[in-house]
Write a sequence for this structure.
């Protein structure tokens, strides 16, 4: 019976914590959201070339400031895994930037070869990997802000990720595979045939036991990091899975697509915990690092002018009034 009580307990939590708050963040589409490692700040990156920083104050967010400086769309962002003040952004302007929320300034700009779309910072904080539209992955030393390696792939590279030890590098590709490379020598260790369709996104869970991938076939597959075996799939969405996120305790997996819900499933059983209703395709989801709060951003349009992007970010999981 313990089996059922766990999912019941999670479902009960969201019955009383199902409020979504919406915040004006940008003048255009929001591509990426992410929480700082202490959960005090939420950042969003947008097509409008800026990065907005919010602070979480109990049950609401307050906009703190906006970072400007990129000359192109901010496609993905990621925070440092243990320095609460640093985050990095990948932009179409052929650069990576590191921002410091304490000084509210850009701490470094690293010029790269192409239009960047994906970024991942190692858990040990020493390396940032960034992928561009030409499937070149660039590895940046965060202590010197110099490029230490580049790897050109001959297939479509989608999202990238690191394992907890920062010695394995994962990437998803257009052929439905997950490539695992050793780091720093970048030797191919394994190719997993994960999906019949394009593998779009990948995320490693905070406990280090699992990783999950979302695919164009509308499936999310869950893998054991040690065994490299697929444990189960989540198949409740009907559209290509654009974005996934594990909760802080590794118990929940959120996945989103063009479906008008964000699916939240229990990792251990694959069962549905809750659906979060949305009004448009969802580009990015991110669980808070210590609470069941899910930040997300959709392709919403302005209420008064349907041609304009709303530029809002949302957070689900606040106590219901």
């Amino acid at each position: 019976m313990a089996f059922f009580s766990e999912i019941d307990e999670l479902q009960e939590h969201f019955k009383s914590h199902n409020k979504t708050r919406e915040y004006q963040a940008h003048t255009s589409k929001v591509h990426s959201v992410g929480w700082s490692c202490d959960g005090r700040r939420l950042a969003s990156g947008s097509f409008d070339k800026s990065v907005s920083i919010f602070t979480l104050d109990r049950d609401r967010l307050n906009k703190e400031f906006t970072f400007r400086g990129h000359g192109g769309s901010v496609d993905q962002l990621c925070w440092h895994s243990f320095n609460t003040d640093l985050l990095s952004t990948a932009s179409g302007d052929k650069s990576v930037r590191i921002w410091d929320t304490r000084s509210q300034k850009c701490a470094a700009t690293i010029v790269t070869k192409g239009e960047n779309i994906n970024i991942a910072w190692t858990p040990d904080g020493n390396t940032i990997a960034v992928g561009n539209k030409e499937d070149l992955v660039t590895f940046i030393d965060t202590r010197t802000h110099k490029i230490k390696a580049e790897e050109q792939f001959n297939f479509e590279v989608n999202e990238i990720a690191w394992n907890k030890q920062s010695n394995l590098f994962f990437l998803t590709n257009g052929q439905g595979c997950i490539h695992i490379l050793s780091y720093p020598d970048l030797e191919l260790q394994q190719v997993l045939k994960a999906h019949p369709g394009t593998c779009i996104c990948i995320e490693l869970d905070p406990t280090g036991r699992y990783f999950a991938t979302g695919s164009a076939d509308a499936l999310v597959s869950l893998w054991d990091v040690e065994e490299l075996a697929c444990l189960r799939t989540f198949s409740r969405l009907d559209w290509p899975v654009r974005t996934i996120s594990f909760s802080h305790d590794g118990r929940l997996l959120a996945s989103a697509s063009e479906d008008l819900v964000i699916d939240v499933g229990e990792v251990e059983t694959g069962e549905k915990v809750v659906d979060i209703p949305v009004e448009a395709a969802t580009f990015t989801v991110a669980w808070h690092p210590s609470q069941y709060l899910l930040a997300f951003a959709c392709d919403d349009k302005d209420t008064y002018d349907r041609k304009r992007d709303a530029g809002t970010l949302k957070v689900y999981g606040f106590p219901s009034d």
